[in-house]
Structure formats: C-alpha cells, structure tokens
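User: Predict the complex with S-adenosylmethionine.
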Amino acid sequence: MKRILEPELMLDEHQVMAYAQADFEIPHQDFMRRLSTWVNEPNFSGTALDLGCGPGDISYRFAKTFPLCTLHAVDGSSPMLNIAQAALSSDLAPRLRFIQGMLPTVILPQSDYEIIFSNSVLHHLPDPQALWQTVKNYAKSGTRIIIMDLLRPANLALAQKMVKDYTVNEPEVLQRDFYHSLLAAFSLEEISTQLAKADLQLQLEQISDRHVFITGVIR
Ligand SMILES: C[S@@+](CC[C@H](N)C(=O)[O-])C[C@H]1O[C@@H](n2cnc3c(N)ncnc32)[C@H](O)[C@@H]1O
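Assistant: Here is the predicted structure with S-adenosylmethionine placed in the model:
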C-alpha cells in the first residue's frame, strides 16, 4: 500500500483538544520505559531535545523522570504549544522550555544536545529527511537518539482492523487521526533507506504490530 500523507502540523483546535485529552498513559509510559532503559542514566543532567512535542505529555514525563535534566521541546503548532505551556509549573519552568519552530529549519537555543528523542512525528512529515536532518544538525559525538513511530500496515483492511482493535473506545476524531496516521506512516524498509540517505547509523526494532523503535549513539 502506498503512503497517503496527512496534514503535517496539527492545527485544528478540535483535533488538538481531542489529542491533548486522550489517554496516552500506556503508550507514553511504554515509550518512557524503553527510553529510560536504553539511556540507563537516572541522574542524566545534560540537555535533551524533544522533536514534535505536541501538547507536551512526553516532555513532562521526561523532565520528571530525569529530575536533573534540562529539556527543550519543539513543535510547529501553536495550539499544541499553548496547551503544553499552560501546564508548565514554576518548579519545572527553569529546566523545561517549549519552542515554536518547524523541522528542519528551527533555530534552537543550543548548538547540540546530549539526548534527542521524538515520538509519533516522523509519519507527519512530507519529507522524512526533515527529522533526520534536524537530528544531524543538533547532535554531536555521543548524542543518544531515541525515536518511536507508527509503521504503515500492508493494506487498508489491516489499518481499519487496527483502528477497531486499538481505538474503539476513543472519540471519533482520534479514531480518524489514528487511521490517517497509519496510512501516512513509513515501512521498516523505507525508514532504513531514509537513514542510509542521511548517513545515520541507527538501529531499527519493530516492537509491536504498529510501532518501530529507533535508537543509536552518534559517532
Ligand atoms: C502526533 S503528534 C505527537 C506529539 C508528541 N510527540 C506525542 O507523542 O504526544 C505530532 C506533532 O508533530 C508536530 N509536527 C509535525 N510536523 C512538524 C514539523 N515539521 N516541525 C515541527 N513540528 C511538527 C505536529 O504539529 C504535532 O504536534
């Protein structure tokens, strides 16, 4: 099945509210568990970068999991960032900063980061090199990269089955989003080709019927 693009930024207020209010406890907790296991440094005190942070649920989880870290979190959507920013408490504000900007042209406050992570963003990009170039622009030797995204099912019937299996209790707007995201996602082979083109040596692991986990350390 060919990839069908979905809108790059999430700008629609109704869609943004539904996404921000959705219960992502299980997948986001799972992302943090995998990330923490892989980073294996509970006292990490450097600066990390969250690419395509949306309403910030994972950004907050990261900042709380690593209480000594600083985190810069970027998104191109101001409705998303307004929600993320509204939840920022005074105790986290000194080390968690939300920044509006587009991958790959965003200019960030630091020239490089010790950890760069991203969840569920790659499939939004018309040109996937936007993510890989941003990773390269802001990585240095030793930067740890952790990325999770959806994988495109083989056909429409499988995509429809996944919507039924995994989002049946969610509002209709979220079910529609999930369906469009599955159709816009890449295959393992396509991601592998993208990484080769970007000259990034990262490891791909399929971790469920619909998720890929991508990790590596920049040399
Ligand atoms: C599905 S959401 C994921 C949000 C968050 N990472 C999470 O896991 O909940 C994808 C986000 O990527 C943002 N996005 C898509 N393309 C982007 C780009 N080129 N630059 C910056 N943000 C982008 C969208 O606006 C949206 O907020």
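The chain is about 40% helix and 20% strand.
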